[in-house]
Specification:
elongated, 5-stranded mixed β-sheet, 25% strand, Rossmann fold, alpha/beta, 6-stranded mixed β-sheet, GbiG_N_sf, 2 domains, 11 strands, Nucleotidyltransferase, domain 5
């Protein structure tokens, strides 16, 4: 849920306009990428602090139309970290500027801010350091034993299209170490002339808090909650020695899974 929070009549007009644009836009608003979201206008929520904090802690994306200072003072007691906090944006009452305030990359605030900028035709104020860095992309894949290369290739192609990337953008194909001898994955990497890297469950478990979903079945089977996302996130982080994030959450067909992660380097 996207909560558009406003405190004045002028702000309310902008909030309703933005909600209308969300609902009528031909491009689905998404947080994070490719996750459709509904919007709700909240005018002078009462009690303000407690209501807004409850929205935040339950994971709602928040768009404030008010002073940045009000937002900071209200949310400060409940802010946790960039991997778990929802996206927070701030707009001025005239709708001239939009600032992704919290969870710019991991929570999708930067992406939502870009969409708001397109809808309102205003100025995006992007302050995250990663705006000046180069992205590194890694594919993570999991599959049934003896999954054909063609099936893996088809799923990868679908994911690249969804992420707006080409295979030339990808630095490696990754998986868990029990798939180190998986013929289809090895062949796929060879065909695409990409490194094929695998990691043990202990290393992949370090990515647990960044996963979009967690599977108890996969945990019991291989020792981690998710293979594709974990492997992509781990290698992306290794490439840059910086944090990593999911660009594309796990997608799957009947035999395989695929996810794409990114990290940033100078």
């Amino acid at each position: 849920m996207i909560r558009i929070i406003c405190l004045t009549e002028v702000g309310l007009q902008l909030a309703r306009r933005l909600q209308h644009l969300f609902n009528s836009s031909s491009t689905a608003v998404s947080i994070p990428v490719s996750t459709p979201t509904k919007s709700d206008v909240c005018f002078k929520p009462t009690p303000f602090k407690e209501t807004v904090q409850s929205y935040f802690t339950q994971g709602d994306t928040l768009i404030f139309i008010c002073a940045t200072g009000i937002v900071i003072r209200t949310l400060a007691p409940v802010i946790n970290d960039k991997y778990s906090d929802p996206a927070v944006l701030v707009l001025d009452e005239q709708g001239q500027f939009v600032i992704p305030l919290l969870s710019g990359h991991e929570g999708g605030a930067n992406e939502l801010a870009r969409q708001v900028t397109e809808l309102l035709q205003n100025q995006l104020v992007l302050t995250t350091a990663n705006s000046y860095l180069k992205p590194k992309y890694v594919v993570g894949m999991g599959c049934e034993r003896h999954c054909p290369e063609a099936v893996l290739q088809g799923l990868l192609n679908e994911c690249l299209v969804k992420a707006g990337l080409t295979i030339d953008d990808i630095s490696a194909i990754t998986s868990i170490d029990i798939k180190s001898d998986e013929v289809g994955l090895i062949a796929l990497a060879d065909t695409l002339q990409k490194p094929y890297l695998t990691f043990n469950a202990q290393r992949l478990s370090l990515m647990e808090e960044r996963l979009s979903t967690k599977s108890d079945y996969i945990l019991k089977t291989v020792g981690v909650y998710g293979v594709a996302e974990s492997a992509a996130l781990y290698q992306a982080q290794q490439l840059t020695n910086n944090g990593s994030e999911l660009l594309l959450n796990k997608h799957k067909n009947k035999q395989a899974t695929c996810a794409i992660a990114r990290s940033y380097s100078l």
